[in-house]
Each structure stands twice: as structure tokens, then as C-alpha cells.
Amino acid sequence: MEELSAGIWGLFISSFISSTIAPGGSEAVLAYMVSEKHYKVLLLILVATVGNTLGALTTWGLGSLAAKKYPVEGMLTEKKRKSLELVKKWGGWAMFFSWLPIIGDGLCFAGGWLRLSLFFSGIAIFIGKAVRYCLVAYVFL
Predict the structure, then answer these.
(1) How far apart are the two ends of the chain, measured CA to CA in Å?
(2) Is residue 105 pLDDT above 50, yes or no?
(3) Does the chain have fewer CB atoms within 10 Å around its N or its C terminus?
(4) So what's the pLDDT on residue 55?
(5) Where are the domains of the chain?
(6) Amino acid 75: pLDDT
(7) b or e along 79-91 (b: 16 or more beta carbons within 10 Å of the residue's beta carbon)?
(8) What is the spatial distance between Cα 30 and Cα 15, in angstroms, rounded to a whole number?
(9) Using CA atoms, how far apart are residues 13 and 134, in angstroms rounded to an integer?
(10) Going by C-beta distance under 8 Å and a sequence separation of 6 or more, which residues neighbour residue 35?
(11) Under DSSP, is residue 141 helix (H, G, I), strand (E, B) or coil?
């Protein structure tokens, strides 16, 4: 097994940050590392997926904390309530789409705010992000 170098840790950190409310470019980091061929592709995909999933679960946790202080009923406009209703309707499966730009972080935050199952949300988030990173890696092989 390859030594866990600064590059691997950089990919993990980039992936984590990219999945919180801060912007990041983990796809570009993964694409570069795949094209350099210094590491096994499956290792890179796994590191990026785990980092990105943990970042998304951090955002989920922030949503859960926010729900304690700010109940859904009094905080949102009608349009935002409808968005939350969609997340309620789809439940944990909505978390599969957390990889989408712009709305993905909001989905994770809403999932925590609505107190969706952390276990199921985590699985759906992991699968969605793994599929995305597999596609990115495939393109840059």
C-alpha cells in the first residue's frame, strides 16, 4: 500500500472543505492526482469520497444544531418551505444529490435541520459522492 503522503492528505482536506459551506475544488485535485498516476485510482477515489462525505456530514450536523435554536416553522419563506418539503418527501434519498454544485450543501443542511436519519443520510451521501468521483477519475485516467 502506498505511503500516505502530503498529496493524499491534501486530497482529503480539499475534499472535506469542498463539502462544507466553504468553496473548494476537490474534483480538480482528484483529476490532477489521477492523471499523475502516482497513486492507485481506487485509493484516490476512496480518500476523496470519505473526505467529502465527512464534510457533508459536518454540514448536516450544523443543520441539526440550527434546528434546535431556529424551528423550521417560523424561519422560512414559502418557497424555502416548499424546498424543505421536497427533502422531507424524499428523506435520506435526497442526500444522494449532495454532490450537486450549489444545492448540495443546502440539501445536507436541510437534512440535518429536518433530523433525517444520520445513518441513512450518510450512506446516501457516500454513494452519491463516490459515483461522482468515479466519473471524474474515469475521465482523467
Answers:
(1) 20
(2) yes
(3) N
(4) 95
(5) 6-139
(6) 65
(7) eeeeebeebeebe
(8) 9
(9) 18
(10) 140, 141
(11) coil
Q: Which amino acid is at 77?
A: T
Q: Contact, 48 vs 30, CB < 8 A?
A: yes
Cα–Cα distance measured from residue 8 to residue 126, given in angstroms and rounded to the nearest whole number: 19
Which amino acid is located at 74 in the chain?
G
4, 71, 86, 103, 119 from 29: Cα distances, Å: 16, 38, 32, 21, 28
C-alpha cell at 63: 443543520
Q: Given a cut of 90, is residue 60 above it in pLDDT?
A: yes
Residue appearing with cell numbers 462525505: 53
Distance, CA of 115 to CA of 10 (rounded, Å)? 31
Residue in the block written with cell 466519473: 135
pTM of the full predicted structure? 0.88
CA distances for 26 relative to 49, 80, 94, 103, 115, angstroms: 10, 28, 22, 17, 27
Identify residue 140 by its one-letter amino acid code: F
**What's the CA gap between 21 and 87, in Å, rounded?**
19
